[in-house]
Amino acid sequence: MSKTRIRVGMVGGGGTAFMGTVHRIALRFDDRYELVAGALGSNPDKSRADAATLGIAPDRAYGSWQEMMEKEAARADRMDAVIVVTPNFLHFPVAEAALKAGFHVICEKPMTTTLDEARALAALVEMSGKGFFLTHTYTGYPMIRQAREMVAAGEIGTLRRVEAEYLQDWLAEPVEKTGAEGAVWRTDPAKAGAGAIGDIGTHAYNLAAFITGEEPTHLLAELSSFVSGRKVDDDAMILLRYGSGAKGAILASQVLTGNGNNLSLRVYGDKGGLEWWQERPEELWFTRLGAPRQLLRRNGAGSTAAAIDGSRVPAAHPEGYLEAFANIYRDAADAMDNPALTVPVPSVVDGVRGLAFISACLASSGQGASWVPIEN
Ligand SMILES: NC(=O)c1ccc[n+]([C@@H]2O[C@H](COP(=O)([O-])OP(=O)(O)OC[C@H]3O[C@@H](n4cnc5c(N)ncnc54)[C@H](O)[C@@H]3O)[C@@H](O)[C@H]2O)c1
């Protein structure tokens, strides 16, 4: 493995932006990256000033992402990869420009705002030969990776049902009207593409596939906008059908009072079941048919290889969100160093699936909540 640090440039993530901060922490965990360039906001002066506070050299603190692509591409010590942490509508043009200029891409979800863009990006990744990593955070948790390995090893038998819930309450009121950071663009269809189904539903949908290894073929969705005047969905109830005969359900909502970041997942087969809750991420409940319900702990007895590999400290020394994110960065670095390597990080293909999910949800709900095919 090369120990050369991967030089990255960040687009978005200036000031108090949520995800930019998380990505910068995650990329530093294993010392595999160096943040060398940035176009951190839409205002050129602020973008450069924010870059200075992060120690980015003045000649690499850019006023726009277009300037960053052009000037970095011309440097001998050019960046290797671009991190995209902007509102959704910019993911496609930024990632497209980055791939065309020969940079790897680490991109936030949902990958794009339309299915056509997602497909175009997948074709471009294929053509470019560059790495593309989609940061579905929850796939980085050791106990999620353990659940995936247990399902693949047949521990729960043939899949019967998967249930994923992602519930929040921070959009329970029309906070976008007060200009609340993050809420304005998330409730603008042109900038977000969709509401709760894109913002958090795609995480639940991705996680269900990540763990089960199965992709549903059809869905039925009832989307609502409970907050008056809101132009995107803020609540979604979705049923899934799989080709194997398995069934699934996804609940995603940002208006359910009392829920902070309440993501949970339950997977049931004919031989057993698994349960995981994001707010207690070190625990995975496993029940083998006919046996007592069992609590498995991160890096504890019964850990699988992926859970051990994803753990940084011994069992009972709590790890969480940032370590999970850092696992995604570590694995992406491995794949950039060695493109032949398969890593458990969502790819551009998963990004297309996410947009196919959003598109099918909108179609189904628009037809009065009828069953529709999911067209990846
Ligand atoms: N993986 C996760 O768990 C997770 C969690 C939250 C958000 N997200 C995703 O991360 C992305 C960012 O979300 P956020 O919550 O950080 O949003 P945010 O509003 O906090 O930050 C967005 C940033 O993009 C910048 N920006 C806007 N226009 C720009 C432009 N033209 N050029 C450069 N920068 C520009 C803003 O200045 C800001 O710094 C979204 O796609 C969101 O869906 C992912």
From TrEMBL:
Residues in GFO/IDH/MocA-like oxidoreductase domain copies: 144-275
UniProt cross-references to InterPro entries, sorted A to Z: Gfo/Idh/MocA-like_OxRdtase_N, Gfo/Idh/MocA_oxidoreduct, GFO_IDH_MocA-like_dom, NAD(P)-bd_dom_sf
Sequence intervals crossing the membrane: none
Pfam families hit by this protein: GFO_IDH_MocA, GFO_IDH_MocA_C3
Residue ranges constituting the Gfo/Idh/MocA-like oxidoreductase N-terminal domain according to the UniProt record: 6-133
Gene Ontology molecular function, alphabetical: glucose-fructose oxidoreductase activity; nucleotide binding
Protein name (Swiss-Prot/TrEMBL): Glucose-fructose oxidoreductase
Organism expressing this protein natively: Hartmannibacter diazotrophicus
Alphabetical list of SUPFAM superfamilies matching this protein: Glyceraldehyde-3-phosphate dehydrogenase-like, C-terminal domain, NAD(P)-binding Rossmann-fold domains
Biological classification of the source: Bacteria, Pseudomonadati, Pseudomonadota, Alphaproteobacteria, Hyphomicrobiales
Keywords on record: Oxidoreductase
Record bears the keyword Oxidoreductase: yes
Keyword Transmembrane attached: no
EC number per UniProt: 1.1.99.28
